[in-house]
Every structure is written in C-alpha cells, then in structure tokens.
Design goal:
The chain is of the alpha/beta class. It has a nine-stranded mixed beta sheet with strand order 1-2-4-3-5-6-7-9-8, sandwiched between helices. Strand 5, helix 6 and strand 6 form a beta-alpha-beta unit. Helix 7 crosses helix 8. The chain is globular and about 45 Å long.
Length: 271
Amino acid sequence: MEKGTAKGIAALLMAAAISTSSAFGGQVFPGKIEGYPEDVAIFANKAYKPADKTTLILHLHGWLHVRDHLAGKMEKFDDVLAEFNFGELLERSGRNDAILVVPSSLGHCETYDANLMNPKSYDSFLSTLARKLKDLGLARTAELESVTLSGHSGAFVSISAMMWHRKTAAVNLLDATYGRFDDFAKFIETRPDARFRGVVVAETETHAGLRELWNAIRARKLVPAEALSSVDPTLEKKLRATNPAFVLWQADVKDAHWKTVSQFLPIFLRK
C-alpha cells in the first residue's frame, strides 16, 4: 500500500472514530501538535457539528507547582485537566458551535510566553491547530472563524500579547488582573468589536488590579461600567449588554481564586 493511501485511510478512520464514539461531549484529543512542545487538550460538546470555519475557544491555565494546599497535586497537565474538568465546563456553557482547546504550559506560564506571545509564533500555532482540527474531523476546513481567549491567574501576561491577533473575538480574564493594565485598556479602546470580560475575587490583589485597570481605561477618556455583582440575578443579561464587563465575586468558598474558572468560564462563554 502506498504511504499516501495509508495516511488517508488512517485519517478517515480517526474521523470516523470521533464521530461515532463518545469522544464528543468531552476530551476529543490529548497529545501534541506540530510546533508546540507541550500537550494540547481539545474538547467538544455532544451536539457539536463541524463547520466550514471553526469557532475556537483557547484557554490558558495559570501557574503549575503553586497549590500548596493540594500538596503538590498540580504538578502536571493531567492534574490541571482533572481539577477543572473542561469538558463539563464547555457542556455547561451550551456552546455547541465551538471547540475548546487547552494547551499545557510549564512553570509560571513559561511555555505560553515562549511560544505564543510572539505574533508570528502564535499565528503559526493557530494555523497548525486549525489543520489538526480538520485532520481530527472536527472541522470541514483548516480555517478559523474567530478565537475567544480565556486566561486564568498568571496567564494574563501571555493573553496581553495574544489578544491583538486579527481573529480575536473576545477576551476573558479569570481572576487575572495582576498587571498589563495599559495594554488591556488600549485593547478595549482600539478593539470595541471584541468582548472583554473578567471576574475578580473581592478584597484580593486582583480586586486592587481591577481598580488599576479602571484607572487606565479612564485615562483614555473611556467610561468603564461599574463591576457587576456576582449575586445579581440579572448578571448574565448585564454581561451581554456591557462591554467591558467585570464581575466582583463576593466569594464565601475555599480556594475562590481557583474556582473562578469553574464558576464563571461557562457563563462568560455563553452567547
């Protein structure tokens, strides 16, 4: 059998396995893609149907090796996937039109910073990822419709560079307002077409950071909305009507900083 034919049959079998198994509704692909040194996890809902152009949600987790209260359980990417259960979060968002991709990063988001902050490198990553989605049967073509960027905690540095890509449709910061305030304010000013949302835990460093971001926005003669209350029964309606929009979470749960992902990512992803 010729190599080209064998590869073609393998691709068809892989696509068929995805479409007929329980892969939809959870993690579709764990592994590496060309040009990125760490693992990448891809998720899709059960009702997802491939489109001509893929709507992509790209989520960057925060630092590893820093959760002392878990006695070192967040040392590997598998620990991140187990902790946050991204397949369930995507299901809760109701986004049957989108693919969620979570790349791994070592240490203090060092892999993100080294491979995704440079515009050419990030563009190459997106192109390679789009081809991978097509090969997996998750897309009809290797073209992206849009990218929603989501970042938790220390991922804010990488997000501040990646958000300028032409395909960016939305930015979500999950307890990640630690810096780069001028960059985010400039993005909000120059890209009003893109949604900008975030959540901070009340009376923490990120809450103070939100005040700094508001000051940076006002310095550009923009008028930011007041932070939305997490207990407001009309929160989701206000999120849809407000841009930029930040939620102040009066959290009464342990490890609220980490739980912002499971609590608010599905809400931010809803249309």
